[in-house]
Design brief:
By secondary structure, the chain is of the alpha/beta class. It has six helices and eight strands; from the N terminus they run E-E-H-E-H-E-E-H-H-H-E-H-E-E.
């Protein structure tokens, strides 16, 4: 028995690429992001999805909601797939962070670094994998959508690809992208990474 997981990065908001939003509240989808969410909803209409789960942050919930509505389901919030806790870095621009030696250490060695007052990427990896295994036990032979965040999705993919966490920079996970994998008692297989549908 196996479960198919669609790992969906939340759609675009106005701070993508300029601010490390982390878990800061009030980050909502922009006009492009809302259009992307509608396209994602159309993309999943032909899939036999049995369950949809979302990070509780607004930008993820706003991405998940139209998908869930089109499938006639409710998007269930899950802390297992929430964004990495970036602690004191949350809300800072990438320009501000560029002079921080800890930021440079974080980006050169995710396996040995921790954001100030936050969690490691390995801790984030452990919680998403735990969440996926729990859902696999509930939805054998079904398909599940997880609406999450770039680094959390990368952490899950790296685990299932058998790659070290420091290889995160080798994966591109764009806003509103879909990465698909199948997980069973026999192991796992990554089918697609960073599928993007034009809005």
């Amino acid at each position: 028995m196996s479960t198919t997981f669609f790992l969906v990065r939340h759609a675009a908001h106005d701070r993508v690429g300029t601010v490390l939003c982390g878990r800061m509240p009030g980050v909502r989808l922009g006009e492009l992001g809302r259009a992307q969410a509608r396209v994602l909803a159309q993309r999943f209409e032909s899939e036999n999805v049995v369950s949809i789960h979302t990070s509780p942050l607004e930008r993820a919930v706003e991405t998940a909601s139209p998908i869930a509505a089109s499938l006639g389901r409710v998007a269930e919030p899950s802390d297992d797939i929430i964004e990495i806790d970036f602690g004191a870095w949350s809300g800072k621009t990438f320009d501000m962070l560029s002079d921080d030696e800890r930021w440079r250490a974080w980006n050169s060695s995710r396996s040995t670094s921790r954001p100030p007052g936050g969690e490691t990427m390995l801790e984030a990896q452990a919680r998403i994998i735990h969440g996926m295994e729990r859902l696999r036990s509930l939805h054998a032979e079904g398909s599940v959508i997880l609406v999450s965040h770039s680094d959390v999705i990368k952490a899950a993919l790296l685990y299932h690809l058998g790659m070290p966490i420091d290889s995160y920079g080798r994966l591109e996970i764009s806003p509103a992208s879909i990465s698909t994998l199948v997980v069973g008692d026999w192991g796992s297989k990554v089918l697609r990474i960073n599928e993007v549908i034009a809005a």
